[in-house]
Amino acid sequence: MTALACLGAAVFPAIAGAQTLTQDEALALAFPDAQLERRTAFLGDEDLAAAERLAGPDVEVRSSVVSYYVASRGGEPVGVAYFDAHRVRTLPQVLMIVVGTDGRVVRIETVSFREPPEYRAPDGWLRQFNGRRLDRALSLRGDIATITGATLTAGAATRAARRALALHQVIDPLSETAR
Known about the structure:
179 residues; 25% helix; 28% strand
């Protein structure tokens, strides 16, 4: 089942060969020297339907409770981090998707990957999401390159990015009403 969730390292215990960052480590990579505020949005049926419509036909948005982190420096927001837990083939992956104040992906970080290491998306491949917004080009049929031998990983990461950007639009975490 696909779920957008904040996960600590304790949720998926370390296993041999699995890459794992703690939530704090991932957030520190994305927002050095920033203040972080954890927030939770509670989505109604209309919000879920809107997010799923925005995310696209191949992307499920099922969780009505969405936790996220708003980062700020000097009292000004600099970005929002979402943790997306989903299955790649048979095992879980957790990605941190960071969205900037302009609504574009700033970075994607692999927090946990339990499939065989050869199926993991390389950091260089993940960088192609940087600067992307939620549009038709953000797809494997658009501007996102596939990964030879790891097509399921490429699809899962792309769906996670689309899901996070869609939820970001619906939640609007940087508006005054989201506080």
